[in-house]
Amino acid sequence: MIKQETIIVNDRQLIKTYSDANKYIIQNETGKKYVEAIDIPNKYTYIESDEELPKEINEDEQQSI
Predict the structure, then answer these.
(1) pTM as predicted
(2) Residue 13 CB: number of other CB atoms within 10 A?
(3) Between residues 18 and 60, which one has the greater pLDDT?
(4) Are the beta carbons of 28 and 44 closer than 8 angstroms?
(5) DSSP 5-49
(6) Total structural domains within the chain
(7) Which among 4, 10, 39, 44 is placed 20 to 30 Å from 33, CA to CA?
(8) Which domain holds residue 9?
């Protein structure tokens, strides 16, 4: 499932988007796939792909989330 969190970077509110199922996310507007995305609020939308992340990315992502 797609998850979103509000984060603050340099006093700016941003949205972090990622999959909690260890899958890539796909930006609807461009079709590009990402492990995670950090954007300004209400800029882009995402869907979860069917493609799982490689194991080494899964481990790295789990440590940073």
Answers:
(1) 0.80
(2) 10
(3) 18
(4) yes
(5) EEEEETTEEEEEEEETTSEEEEETTT--EESEEEE-TTS--EEEE
(6) 1
(7) 10
(8) 2-64
